[in-house]
Design goal:
Elements lengths: L1 E9 L3 H7 L2 H8 L3 E7 L4 E7 L2 E9 L3 E6 L8 E11 L2 E11 L5 H28 L1
Antiparallel strand pairs: 1-7, 2-3, 3-4, 4-5, 5-6, 6-7
Helix pairs in contact: 2-3
Length: 137
C-alpha cells in the first residue's frame, strides 16, 4: 500500500468549501475521469466515471469533515484505493486535506505503487487546485 497526502489552506469559510465538494465535483476536480452517472444508495453515493477505455466506479460516504471514497470492486486501475477529503477550520483558516491509500496489487506492487504515487499525487494536486480556483472565482 502507498499513501499520498496533501493539504491546502484557503481563506474561504468551511461551509462554502463543503458546499462545493460533492462526489461528482471531487471526481471532476481531480481531472482524470469524466462523470458518467451518479446514483444514491441508502449508505453511499456511487459515481461511475470514465477515461478513454477505462470505466471506474467510486463509492462515496459522507464523514463528519468531508468524504471517504473507495474504488468499488475491480472497476478501475487499483486493486484497492481509499481516499479521504476533509475540511476543517484551524486558527481562522480553512484547511482542505486529501489523503489516498492505494495499491495496484500483483507481484510487483512494491514498484508499481511507488511509481503510481506520483500520478496519484498529481490527481490530488489537481483536485485541490481546481477546488481553490472554483471557490475564488
Amino acid at each position: 500500500m502507498q499513501l499520498v497526502d496533501l493539504e491546502v489552506t484557503l481563506d474561504i469559510p468551511p461551509s462554502a468549501v463543503r458546499e462545493a465538494l460533492t462526489p461528482a465535483s471531487i471526481v471532476e476536480y481531480a481531472g482524470t475521469y469524466e462523470v458518467v452517472s451518479v446514483d444514491r444508495t441508502d449508505d453511499a453515493t456511487v459515481v461511475t466515471a470514465a477515461a478513454d477505455d477505462l470505466e471506474v466506479v467510486f463509492e462515496f460516504v459522507e464523514t463528519d469533515t468531508g468524504y471517504r471514497y473507495e474504488q468499488h470492486g475491480a472497476h478501475g486501475p487499483f486493486e484497492r484505493m481509499t481516499t479521504w477529503i476533509s475540511v476543517t477550520r484551524e486558527a481562522g483558516e480553512t484547511r482542505v486535506s486529501a489523503a489516498s491509500e492505494f495499491t495496484f496489487g500483483g507481484l510487483f506492487s512494491f514498484l508499481t505503487d511507488r511509481l503510481g504515487a506520483t500520478m496519484r499525487r498529481r490527481e490530488l494536486e489537481r483536485l485541490l487546485t481546481a477546488l481553490a480556483l472554483d471557490l475564488e472565482a
